[in-house]
Structure formats: C-alpha cells, structure tokens
Specification:
heterotrimer; A mainly alpha (268); B alpha+beta (374); C mainly alpha (295); B: 374 residues; alpha+beta; Rossmann fold; 6-stranded mixed beta sheet; 5-stranded antiparallel beta sheet; disordered N terminus; C: 295 residues; mainly alpha; MetI-like fold; 2 domains; two-stranded antiparallel ribbon; 77% helix; 1% strand
Amino acid sequence: MKSSGLRIYTIAYLIFLYAPILLLPLFAFNDSKVIAFPLSGFTTNWFVEMWADAQLRNALKNSLIVASSAAILATGLGIFAARATTRFSFPGKGPILGLVMLPLVLPEMIVAMALLIVLLAIGIPLSIFTIILGHVLICTPFAIAILSSAFQSLDQSLEEAAYDLGESPLSTFRLIILPLVMPGIISSLLISFTISLDEFIIAFFLGGSETTLSVYIFGQFRFPAKVPAIMALGTILVLLSISLLASAEFFRRRGLARSGTKNTGGFL
Amino acid sequence: MTAKPLLAPGAARASTMIEFRDVHKYYGDYHALRGITATIRAGEFFSLLGPSGCGKTTLLRTIAGFEGISSGVVLIDGKDVAAVPANKRPTNMVFQSYAIFPHLTVAENVGFGMRREGLAKEALASRVGEALEMVGLKGFGARAAHALSGGQRQRVALARALILKPKVLLLDEPLSALDKKMREQMQVELIRLQRQVGITFILVTHDQEEALVMSDRIAVMFEGEIAQLADPETLYRRPNSKKVADFIGTMNFLPATILSEAGGKIEVTAKGFGAVTLTADQAPGDAAGTGAMVGFRPETLTILFDGQTAVDRESMATIEEVVYYGDMTYYDVKLDGTETATRISMRNVFGRPVLDIGTRTRIAWSPGALVLFR
Amino acid sequence: MDLRTRWGRFRNSEAASGYLLVSPTALYAILLLAAPLGMIVLYSVFRDGYLTVIPAFTMDNYVETWSSPIYRAIMFRSLYVSMSVTLVTVLLAYPVAYFVSFHVDPSRKSLWLFLITIPFWTSYLIRVFLWKVILGYNGVINSALMSVGIIDEPLTAISYNVQAFVVTLAHAYAPFAILPIFVAMEKIDRSFLEAGQDLGESRLMTFWRVTLPLSMPGVVAATLIVFIPTIGDYVTPNLIGGGKIPMIANMIENLMLVRDDKPLGSAIAVSAMLIVTLVSLIFLFLNRRFLKGQK
C-alpha cells in the first residue's frame, strides 16, 4: 500500500474527526444566535452570557466536587487492586478482576439503571454522593489499567532490597514504591477526573435534583437561544480536557524516563 | 590510596557463621530443599554452585530471610533466625538485577540503609564516600542511578550492602549479567574486596569456573541437596560422584571392574590402563553396585614425545581429533583397548609440533590421578 | 505463624495478602455492581405492581419483550444501528491504524495516537449535540450548501433518522476502533513481511496473507469495543432523534422511570445484555478460529 495515499487518507480522517469540535470555537465567537453559515462577525458575548448563569456556576462546582472525589476514590481503589493483582497470585484473581473491570464492557445505561434501582429500593436519596458512587464504578477500571502497568514495571527486587537494608514494609512502600508509581497515580487521577467531568448518563439518572456540568448542558439543549452560550462552554471544556490529557501523558512519560523503561506509546 | 577495611581484622571470632541443620523447604508439594546440613565459616568466601533449579538461590534467600523454611534450623552467628524477619538480620544481599533504586542518586542509594541510624549529614556523606571509594566509584555520588552501566550498578549494590557492615554478604548470581571481560574483572575485584573487608561472602552461581576461582569452599547442589561440600581443589581432584565430576570442569570416564578390596586398597582393571591399585581415598563416593568407572582430568595424562620417558605408567593410544587453542592443544585420543575417546590437554611448548590425526603415541599417566566411581 | 497448619500457612501466604489488598475494590464492585445487576435480573422475573415490584416469579416480562412488535422493533433498530456503526467505524479505522503502524516513524507513533485520541476525551454530550447542529434543518451543512448555492432547500434526509445516528456514533467511537487494531498490528513481527517480500510476493499478497490475518484479533477487539457501548446508547437517539426514534436505552428509561414498570424495564435490560453477550461470544469464537488457523 502506498504510503502517500494512506497518509492523505489518514489526514482526511483526522480532519473529519476534528471538524465538529472545531465548530465550537468558530461559533462560540460568532455573532449570531443561530449556528449556521455564513458567519456574522466576532463577539465574546456568549462567554459572558455563559458565565453569568448561576445555574452553570453551581453545576460547575458540583462537577468539580464529583470529579475530584471520584478521581481520588477510583485511584485509591485502583492502587489496591493493581498492587494485589501484580504482586500476588491468589485463587479467584481472574473473576474478581473481571468483575471490577466489568463496567468497561457494559453499556453505561445498564450500570446506571442497576445502581438506581438498588438505591431507590434501599431508600437512599439521590444526590452528589450517589453520582460519585457511580462514577467511581466506571473510573476504577481505567485507574486499574494505568496503575497495573505502573506496578508491573516495578522490579520486585527493589522492594526486597529496601527490606534487606532494614526498612519496614510500610516505609518501603513510602520510600521506594510510591515515588516510582507516582507518575502512574497522577495519570490515573487526571484520567479519572476527565472521565467524571464529561460523564452524563450516571450524573443524569443518579443526581436527583443536583446537576453537574453535563446535566446542565443537556438541560440547555431545549432552549434554542442558549445554543451559542453552549458553544462557548463547549470550547472551554474541550480546551480543559485536552490540557488535562496532555498533562497525564506528560507525567506518564516522565515516569517512564525516571525508572528507565522504554516508551511504547500510550497507556494502552 | 589505601582504603580502610570496614571490619577490624579478627573481629569475627566465632568460627561458624552460618549453620544449616536438616533444612527442608516445600513450595506446596514441590520439595525444594531436601535436608540441607552444612556450616559456613566466618570470614570465608563460600559458593553455592549448581545448575538452574537446584535450590541454591532458595537456600541463599533462607539466609537472607526472604524465604521461610518448612522444617529444620538456620543459625546465623549461633542464633536461630526463624523468628527474625529479613530486615532485622545481620545479612545484606546483592541481587541478581542489582535492584538499584532508579529514582535516587548513587549516594542516596548507598546511604539508603543508613537512614535508620540517624547520622548527621557530614558523617553520612563521609561514610558513603568511603564505601564508594572501596568499590572503585569515587566521585560518583551525585550521578543518577538509572544512568549507570551494568558493572557500575553492581559496584553501587556492593557499596550499599557493605556500608552497613553486615556479618554476611549474600550475592545472588552477581556476575551473570556482565560480559566476559567485565566478569573476569569483577571476579578479581570481589576477591580483593572480601579480603579487605574480612566478612563472610556467600555467592550463588551456576558457573563452575567462577566458583573455583573465587571460593574458599564450594557446596555443589543438585535437586535440593548438597552433593559435595569442599574446597575447590578437593572438588576438582576428588569429586564424590560422577555428577559432581561432570559438573566441575571436564572429566574423562573409562569402564573399570573392581577385582578386590581390602585394607584400604582397591584392585581394579580399567580399560586402556590395565591393572591398577587404588587407595580408599580415591573412591570417595558411596560404596554401592559394581558397575564402575574410573575418571581422570585431561591434564593428568601427558603425550610423550620422542626421547621422553614416563615417570610412572605408560599406555598406547591413537590420536583421533586435534583442537588447537593457541596456548593449549586438546587431543582426543583413543587408548588401546577402549571404545571411547579420551581428552588430553597439553600446553603448547615452543618448538614442539602439533601432532596429526592418526598418529600413534605413548601416553604417560599415574594411578594416583584416577578417581573410582561405582 | 505456625507453618505446620493450613491456616498458619495461609495466613503467611501470598493468597492472604492478595485477598486483603484487593478486598476494598472487590467489595465495592460486589456491593455496587454485582448486587445491583443481580437485582435487575431478579426484577426481570418479578411482577409489576403499583409503585412497587411484587416478588412473584413470572416470565411474562420476557414474553412481552420478545413478542411485542414495538419492543422487537426497538431492539432490532438498536442492533441495526450498532452493527452499522461498528462496520463503518472499523472499516474506516483500519487504514488509519495500518498507516500509523507501518508508515510512521516509531518515535512519532505515540504523537499520532495522541492526536487521534484527543477528540474522544472531549465531552460526548457536546459532540452529539454538534452533530445535531451540523445535520439539522437549519444546521451547518444545510446553511453552508445553501449559502454557496448548491441547494435551494435544506436537506431533510440528513437528520432525524437512523442514518444520522450512525454518522454521529461512528464519529464518536472512531478512536475506540483504531487503538486495538493498531496494537495488534504493532505485534506483527516485521520479519514475516520481509520474508514474504524476499520470496517474491507482491505487497498486496503480503498484506492479504500475512498482515490481514495477523491483525484480526485487533479487529475483533475493535468490533466489540464499538458494538457494546453503542447498542446501549442513550444520548444520540434522544438528541438526534428528538425522542421519536428510541433505542434500547431510551426504552429502558421510559419503562423504569416514566411508566414505573421496573420488571419490564429489567427484562429489556437483561435481554439487551444477552444480545450483547451472544454477539460478543460469536466474535470471540471467530477470533479463536482465526488464531487456530494461524498455526
């Protein structure tokens, strides 16, 4: 297959991938209430209008709370699971890991509905807390994937060496394991944060009367007048996600450099 | 530059440092160590030698405390260490992968074990400096650990272990990851270090040359048991079984029949040699069946050139194969009356020709060089 | 720690440490995932009551799910959408994966992958909405084509139908498809390809006989990764279809929350999961046959 033909195809593909997203800044600054061509001139009004909405600010606050909590909890659970599965072998390890990773292969709707039913049956009121519960469920598999890779690249002799030199298991963890796994931890936090921030289904069904950013955006869709402001919000969110992701990648690479392993490309 | 020895000479007075009493270890159903009983002396360079899977690393790790034992006793400096965890034992280990902490500098690595002693910064720095100098890495303190070569990493691992002045230094195949030149260099280094520091070194290796070069005594292990424990010369000249004889160096074997045995003397006829009288110490293995063999090393036979006479006994042989090595020539000969080839090694003397295949030669040998295997 | 007893050995063993460490995560998953899923299965065989669920065993829900033309239509529509999306996405993704794996310098590969995956990390909601905006009656495409003069009237064929779903979802899941195929291609030993060339094969033949079969596990993985989430998608039918062209997820919401028929909703959910599992097993089986065929 010719390289140049493939290259052209791939670039066209990338353009197709990015095109809709590029519309965001285009129409966020466009001085028109309608998202249509031709363009009408530059304005920053939509950003102002967007920020003026108190509901947005409330939703943003909720999103940040949910995303941070979910990131920390998912990463915490991920550390336990990743350490357990990479370091020890025990019967039933496969099924247990399978269960924990299940949300990756289940449609989100089903996870959300199942959780909702149980919460309703027990009588737990829906709130930010229940959203966090759901988000931790779906973020933990990603955390485990990233952290397993980080723990895997840890030479077991390093722990034994620290122990041999007089350290306790706890101080070994603190002085040797944690620093070497830290880039993975940070990466996991960032990824989980991003996933939670963008997540809609669980936030929508398990939030009760509380809104997160995605739920707020969804609610705005039925008002045509609000669309340009949504474009403005979308632009900012996209930039935020991209920078979060770039940082996660940066830390991942730095982690590899520090421990001297090779870069194989992505947290695949 | 004279480096101070870390341990004052004569500090280790007890003659036994490590003792194993009928040590067994099971991994589930797998019997990894089968009744190990041995002692290792203070201040000696001791090797555990054997093929992969023989249990030598497992045994080393039971000394370090990384593996427990299923039954028996392990004593370090007279004390039963069953209840002592690895981080409290007076031993330190150099791992096969060196296990240098990649996120720390060389100095931080070397000083890692000193953290608990709470030394002042200058005192610590000076101890670290001494340790680095002792292993030949003076001035490397500020280097990042992940940027070192294999040989340098090993030295850092040594410094890191020795700075703590352990009673025993354990080395798990420390030279296997190095290339040949580096390996030979480090062998000399390790011997020098051990003499300088004066503590017990226990080395695990599968390379018998390495063990012979460096050790005061060697325990040869097969399948979880110690086959023979002796100094290098005894192991080489008087192996107690065919297996040990085969593992260490090269040994030739020829079939033999035991005629009679009395008063410390054994009458044997061996193919290629004829009737020989051996003394009891030439048959160190267990007395069992009668399917016997005599073994002898390549350098114990000599090809006689014109004008030379045998000091002891003589036989005839035909040369089958010649391998020229520069400083040595190896001849595969068939002694009269034998069916298998025998390898003889001869130093190449200036002016002496290399013989051709097919030549008939006289071979000089001595009964004292034979080992009887039953 | 008495190593002679089984309990002593266990306590001291790896297994104990392993269980201890994994317990927080495992417990979380059991309580919040396994139990709720179990509950759904349970509800699916219970009877529906007024504002409650009656714990009496019945298969009526499944009968209704599979015999009612409405629900059947919805399930087939969902199946059609997700299969179309999967087909389109995987086909279009394959050349991209091939390009990055075989024609990009190794030092630049992760950069390309990074660029490809970025769109995925932006809000899915917003991306679906953007497609609504693009394909809509007064949307970007129509207004652009009209302002240039190519058409006089806006196209209606590009929105409020299943084809619009496919376009939207294919765009959203594109990176999902590229990555597994890429990973599989990276694993192919390049010396196989060179050996083929060395023996006089044309490049097309090498592709057909070596690269394609060896990349199949990646294709199967990509298929599953796209198929499973899309069949249960909620947002796209809701936004792009205006709520008038529901898929399984919309139906489940409707039954569970609007009509408060949790048993029926559960039955549909379980049926959806069964369809997903069945299709996945078929693909995994095919994958295994492919791998066996390699030997």
